[in-house]
Amino acid sequence: MSNKKILMITGDFTEDYETMVPFQALMSVGHTVHAVCPDKKSGDTVATAIHDFEGDQTYTEKPGHRFGLNATFADIKVEDYDALVIPGGRAPEYLRLNKAVVAMVKHFFDTNKPVAAVCHGAQLLAAAGVLDGRKCSAYPACQPEVELAKGEFMDIPVDQAVTDGNLVTAPAWPAHPAWLAQFYVLLEK
């Protein structure tokens, strides 16, 4: 697998597994991953939350870890990156309000570079206006946003993922094996 330079845009109360697992997994196969958050610099941290499925009508949320950022948001030049990862959790809800973040997301679609988004990451995709005509999986509560953004919501099992062009999406962290496997394929194209 050739080494790619991957940007991960995350923020406070990102989902713990959806941030830590892809960050570590991508680096373990030789990729460089820069994790950034608006208004934060390399060495800062973001709070994570652990979302679990315990039989309630929605997920439960528990405190996670502090996730260390390894790049400074203000220094990022998106044209230097080969791919983008958008973790879920609550971070996409507020990140989608940041014009610089939205512009970064659009860049990866304008240049047809691989993008992997999981769970609530679809909120950021919808805000960036990149879902028109695309198949997109996400946490089920994001279905209205995917559809309002003219995407086709893919209601798939929680441990599966879907690829449409340069985009691979999944409902939640139980899909990591399928989601990452499909993202690895995109990274090799």
From TrEMBL:
Gene3D superfamilies: 3.40.50.880. Residues 4-182 form the DJ-1/PfpI domain. It comes from the Bacteria. Keywords: Hydrolase, Protease. Pfam families: DJ-1_PfpI. GO terms for molecular function: peptidase activity. GO terms for biological process: proteolysis. Belongs to the peptidase C56 family. This is Protease I. It comes from Marinomonas rhizomae.
